[in-house]
């Protein structure tokens, strides 16, 4: 049986759970894969990719901070990747030609709508952050027709830029403009990992149905902890999104979408 050579590239990379997830998927659909973690040195993304192609690579995932580099390097882009200006999945053809895809947005939507069984249409959403992680999923969120999406970011220029791109569907707000009737809160800042100060007014939690942190951590993220300490709502981490975006990547490579719930349960138990 053919063995497909896969990898995840980023920096840092040691913490990545992608190898566990993709090995689980491959076993479930009876495909032989090898899946390694490749640490990308500063400024060395293109060379890491070229070397991987020379060694017979079939496809790879891209994580922080290389998603934009992958978008620049790809020879062809899916519409999601072009829209997000970021690539998290690449397929390499026999001539070394690279097709870039972005599965982060669909991964977030699948986790919220299918796994957590929440409806997005007609809900009022507050998104925290306006960096690469948020830009990558915004189109998918907007396409689900929420009542409105407000974005708060420490650096106002970035949230304004995002609001301009989705004019009429997304608004940029300052801290003192935040409302007290959001249905969902989605954290896309890196405070979840960097453990910075959370400096948000507690009123934003008054009506929330649930909070979602796009990152994950061993145990609760700082954002999950803040939500749970200040309200009765459930706060989820991004493990489900991670597995769903991986399943979409796997389907992009092999045309088969594996079951995700067994892997999500496995990772939650290990957390
Ligand atoms: P990523 O690709 O993970 O989104 P990024 O593009 O560097 O990385 O964006 C990080 C996000 O987290 C940004 O929205 C950043 O806010 P700024 O645009 O003001 O930098 C936000 N962020 C990081 N540390 C933060 C902190 N301590 N408090 C508030 N926001 C923070």
Describe this structure in words.
The chain is α/β, with parallel strands linked by helices and 271 residues long. It folds into two domains: 3-103 and 245-259, Leucine Dehydrogenase, chain A, domain 1 (Rossmann fold, 3-Layer(aba) Sandwich), CATH 3.40.50.10860; 105-239, NAD(P)-binding Rossmann-like Domain (Rossmann fold, 3-Layer(aba) Sandwich). The protein has eleven helices and twelve strands. The protein has a six-stranded mixed sheet, with helices on both faces. Helix 8 (191-194) links the parallel strand 10 (184-187) and strand 11. Helix 5 crosses helix 6 (132-143) and helix 5 (104-115) packs across helix 10. The chain is globular and about 55 Å long. The two termini are 34 Å apart. 44% of the residues are buried. The mean pLDDT is 95. It binds 2'-monophosphoadenosine-5'-diphosphate. 2'-monophosphoadenosine-5'-diphosphate is lined by residues 64, 129-133, 153-155, 158, 189-191, 194, 196-197.
CATH topology of the largest domain: Rossmann fold
Count of alpha and pi helical runs: 11
Tell me the domain tally.
Answer: 2
Which regions have little confidence, pLDDT < 50, spanning 5+ residues?
none
Instruction: Look at the structure and give the CATH class of the largest domain.
Output: Alpha Beta
Helices and strands, in order, run as EHEHEHEHEEHEHEHEEHEHEHH
| Biggest sheet features | 6 strands, mixed
Summing up helix and strand content along with how strands pair, one would put the structural category as alpha/beta
Radius of gyration: 18 Å
End-to-end distance: 34 Å
Average per-residue pLDDT, rounded, comes to: 95
Percentage of residues in strands: 15-25%
**How many strands?**
12
* Overall geometry: globular
Q: State the CATH superfamily name of the largest domain.
A: NAD(P)-binding Rossmann-like Domain
Give the names of the bound compounds: 2'-monophosphoadenosine-5'-diphosphate
The main sheet orders its strands as 2-1-3-5-6-4
Please give the CATH architecture of the largest domain. 3-Layer(aba) Sandwich
Specify the helix fraction band.
Answer: 25-40%
